[in-house]
Amino acid sequence: MINIKFTKLFLVFFLSVIVTFQFSCSASHQVEKKNLNEDKNFVFTVWGHGDADKSEASWDSVFTKLYNAGITDYFLMASPSELKRLVHLTKNKGIRIHCWIWTLNRPNDTTAQKHPDWYSVNREGKNSLEAKPYVNYYQWLSPFSEGATNYIKQNIREIAEIDGLASVHLDYVRYCDVILGKALQPKYNLVQDKEMPEYDFGYHPNARKEIEKLFGVDPVKMEHPELSNEWRQFRLNAVTKLVNELAEIAHKNGKKISAAVFPYPELARMNVRQDWSSWNLDIAIPMVYQNFYQQDLNWAGFSIEQGVREVQNKFPIYAGLFIPSLTPQELKKAILISKNSGAKGVSFFNLSSLTNEHLKIIWKIFEKINISSK
């Protein structure tokens, strides 16, 4: 029997389902972005992983439980066949499935590993396949490698062709962290008060040749390449170009493009060479994980405000919240701070970290914002 919460929630999202119907239309029609102010519901979403071994009944139980708490969108990392199954399972239920994909960081990708020249190169001349920075799963492809970018585009094209998928959700669409969050540095016995050559990436041979043609200098030969605004912007532009090409592929297939990004644009540009406020997105989810930066929840609100100011209504921003660091009451505060700072939704990392106590808080906030205020 469908409970009362489920019924109320379905009514609230009925109009949203009608709006999103357009995205199941023919792939020959390009998606028109909605204006930020047209979506008046505050959206609750979650990151998670697919599970091909999980039965449809088990998945239905998971979706119903979270849907009853107000969570309607799922950024899931799964195979194309699993995504198709989940899209079919949730069809006409007010639930949207997004494909979460690691974009430039491709650990253990057997196809990419056959092409060492596809990988990003650091200031010491070492590529990310041979000298994995920080952790073994950091294996970064270069946006300056035509082979790598063509491979990424093909991957995105295959995903975007899945009928009923809400968006292609890009993650790790950046360079390796040249500066880690303050709380993470001790884990690697680092004090990153400056840019260290082994973590400073983007020195692919193609990039070096191209910028030398523009400015007459090879960045490797610069005394302080970290001080060159032109060199930083040149690398930012390469990722922006790739993202916008991926957005075009998604839109041509009737899908939105969304991305998990770093907390706010200036921090993202400095720490990971990611200029996300310039991208042609439909949704951005800055990961305002305050504990990674030894900050409090007000910092998360500050981060959202900076993103909203720079984006200027080009696309909505959802706040990415790190559930393991938040008690239920802290989660309540984080959601309200995010909303008051201009976010149009929140996304929880991750599905397995949400407790029943978290879900009760989420439902109460959902009910207050999206139902009681109607």
SSE layout and pairings?
Blueprint: H1 4-12, H2 14-20, E1 43-49, H3 56-67, E2 71-77, H4 80-90, E3 96-102, H5 146-160, E4 167-171, H6 205-215, H7 229-252, E5 256-261, H8 265-272, E6 283-286, H9 297-311, E7 318-322, H10 328-340, E8 345-349, H11 356-372
Parallel strand pairs: 1-2, 1-8, 2-3, 3-4, 4-5, 5-6, 7-8
Helix pairs in contact: 5-7, 9-10, 10-11
Descriptive notes:
There is one protein chain. Helices cover 38% and strands 12% of the residues. Mean pLDDT is 91; it is low at 6-39. Strands 6-5-4-3-2-1-8-7 form an 8-stranded parallel beta sheet. It has 11 helices and 8 strands. It has one domain: TIM Barrel (Alpha-Beta Barrel), CATH 3.20.20.80. It is globular. It has helices spanning 4-12, 14-20, 56-67, 80-90, 146-160, 205-215, 229-252, 265-272, 297-311, 328-340, 356-372, and strands at residues 43-49, 71-77, 96-102, 167-171, 256-261, 283-286, 318-322, 345-349. It is of the alpha/beta class and 374 residues long.
Number of domain units: 1
Adjacency order of strands in the biggest sheet = 6-5-4-3-2-1-8-7
In total, the number of strands is 8
The ordered H/E elements are HHEHEHEHEHHEHEHEHEH
Radius of gyration: 21 Å
Task: Tell me the CATH topology.
Answer: TIM Barrel
The CATH class turns out to be Alpha Beta
The CATH superfamily appears as Glycosidases
CATH architecture: Alpha-Beta Barrel
Name the overall outline: globular
Oligomer category:
single chain
Amino-to-carboxy terminus distance: 26 Å
